[in-house]
Amino acid sequence: MKPIYVDNNATTRVAPEVVEAMLPYFSDYYGNPSSMHTFGGTVGQYINEARSKLAALLGASPEEIVFTSCGTESDSTAVMATLRSYPDKKHIITSRVEHPAIKNLYEYLAKTGYRVTFVPVDSKGLLDMDFLVSSLSKDTAIASFMWANNETGVIFPIDEIAAILSERGIVFHTDAVQAVGKVPIDVRKTRVDMLSLSGHKLHAPKGIGALYVRKGTKFSPFLIGGHQEKGRRGGTENAASIIGLGRASEFVAAHMEEENTRVRALRDKLETQLTQKVPSTFINGDRQQRLPNTSSIAFEFVEGESILLMMNEFGICASSGSACTSGSLEPSHVLRAMGVPFTAAHGTIRFSLSIYNTESDIDTIIEKLPPIIERLRTMSPFWKGTCAAA
Amino acid sequence: MWEYTDKVKDHFLNPRNVGEIENPDGVGEVGSLACGDALTLYFKLDDQKRIKEAKFKTFGCASAIASSSALTEMLIGLTLEEAEKITNDNIADYLGGLPKEKMHCSVMGREALEKAITCYLGNAEKKVEGEIVCECFGVTDIQIERAVRENHLTTIEEVTNYIKAGGGCGNCHDKIQAIINTVLGKESSAVKKAPTLTNIQKIKLIEQTLEREIKPALNKDGGDIELVDVSGNTVQVRLRGTCASCRKSQITLKNYVETKLRELVTPELVVEEVSL
After folding, report:
1. Is A42 exposed, middle or buried (CB count within 10 Å of its CB: 0-12, 13-18, 19+)?
2. Is the CB of residue A177 less than 8 Å from the CB of residue A151?
3. Residue B1 in domain
4. Is A387 a catalytic residue?
5. Closest CA to A297 of A314, A316, A322, A333
6. Would the CB atoms of B167 and A330 count as touching at under 8 Å?
7. pLDDT tens-digit profile of B255-276?
8. SS3 for A172?
């Protein structure tokens, strides 16, 4: 059974073009870019080409790119590098709906003596800007707000936040792991100081990430070691994956328009059809300020894990905001922060598309999912049926 | 991804006895939408007071649905006295085991069964007993104590896996730990407090410990243990079944039997194995 893969916010298919670009760097050009000999040194040149390609995707200069191992490392690096640079500042701020890479790091820092503010969101997942502004102080070392939410796809007003923070001289980091490659990003226009991204969310392999660090930003390395990445991140470069990330940057740039037209249309069709066919169903998050590929749909009175496992029988791969799939007992902190009622949070499914999805994928989901919800609802003690039209 | 057994998958994808019973003899409702799982269990008795029909409606994950389905299958044909003896472990075993994080699904089955039986016996549904410890999931100190005692739980994580308590905000972790300590403390101190044992008391206590604590544990792995003699502080035992042929039998003896006996009888005991 060919999988119908609509879980692209979890990870993406490595594009065949990307694999092809990477292959020579395993067995042919395997030298260490730090070596003095031409054999190794040449690899360094290709790494810098990849750096330029990624920089171009962001509107950055190549030397502002630091390669890391993943999005989480980029996030930790941004926050820790800043805190070490401003040892006297003891306040940090973020939102209540961040990815665990930031959320858990901030919670950890709260235990080590930092004063932490988690800015709330409204029922559509939009940030409370007044709360944000009133929480800032001279003691604020770093603000970290995600570009786009991984669960709902809701996009924060990064331009506006950047302007507010830069006016006050507060370092601004954004976790743009879900946004890069899906929506246009240009750091020349948006004054973020640091930006995290991850290769495997944009058709490069797992195990490679990057951090954009604006020229002039105070930075004290997080991973201490060799002189690689201009002393900003020790460790021998993951050459093949860096080459892959460079190639993937070109790939997503070339498909950006398709992502925002064809993929968006598929996502919209999925939402429209499912909410029409299945009663007591709604979309989580603001419909406008949103990534083109993501849909978070709440099916009331049923539980997400059951939906996922029944879809799995048809090869449909999605994910859920329910507690049962994560090993924790409470549903997603993102949905709870938005005040999504428990009746819906437990039954929320996230569909995240990519340019590899076809119309027939979406049609299959539209055909297979409604009977699954129906079946689970007949099993549910809470489902009393829809009100018969009077 | 959870590793569910084929039996769990089967009972999830083809659940048995889904539905409601009109005019049931017993109904038990547990869980809530907020908690993420809920089960309503119905049963009807025949003339011989045996369960003729059992049905369920469940909101929850695959293992919650499978546990409910399994429970109804186990119930049909039983008397209420027999049904009362079903434990959450029995439900999990019927399904070939559950992931440890999902044990609470089997506990939910047992709780619904108890409520349904109470309902049949005409006892007004008991009010929540004890004091709420875990506010997130509404779990009381009495429920936690029972789960700890019955399932020999020793950590907060295990308590969360079995009855969810402590799985939310985490504010109650200290209280849960205190309950675990009390239960564990009670078990050992009850014995420790005993004054110097007479020989007969000691032998009886060794027998009891072997029967209640050690045998069931060895039986689980297909082994068995038999008390041969006690002289002074030396306990002679014979091992049977898997344990006897197991190369690790010495380790089993030293590390397990002796520790248990020392803990529950008296610290001076030495265990010796007698060959067949």
Report:
1. middle
2. no
3. no
4. no
5. A322
6. yes
7. 678 888 888 888 888 888 776 5
8. strand
Domain tally, chain B: 3
| Cβ-Cβ contacts under 8 Å for B222 (sequence gap 6 or more) | B241, B242
Residues 6+ apart with CB under 8 A from A332: A151, A321, A322, A326, A345, A348
Residues 6+ apart with CB under 8 A from B83: B51, B75, B113, B117
pLDDT number for residue A371: 97
Residue A341: helix, strand or coil by DSSP?
A: coil
Q: Which CATH number characterizes residue B214's domain?
A: 3.30.300.130
Q: A200 and A286, same structural domain? A: no
Do A153 and A288 touch, CB atoms closer than 8 A? no
B38-B42-B46 Cα angle (round to 5): 165
Pick among B61, B134, B172 to test the A interface (most A CBs inside 10 A): B61
One domain, residues A140 and A243: yes
Residue B272 belongs to what H/E stretch? strand B270-273
Whether A217 and A286 share a structural domain:
no
Tell me which of A144 and B175 has the higher pLDDT: A144
Residues A185, A69 within the same domain: yes
Q: Which of A10-14, A231-235, B105-109, B149-153 has the lowest mean pLDDT?
A: B149-153
Residue A162 and residue A183: Cα distance in Å, rounded?
A: 17
Q: Is B64 on the interface with A (CB under 8 A)?
A: yes
Residue A390 in domain: no
Given the residues A70, A317, A324, A387, the one annotated as active site: A324
Banded model confidence at residue A390, pLDDT cuts 50, 70, 90: very low
- What tens digit of pLDDT does each residue of B15-39 get? 999 999 999 999 999 988 777 889 9
User: Do B76 and B13 have their domain in common?
Assistant: yes
Q: Specify whether the CB–CB gap between A52 and A60 falls below 8 A.
A: no
Identify all chain B residues contacting A313, using CB atoms and an 8 Å cutoff. 13
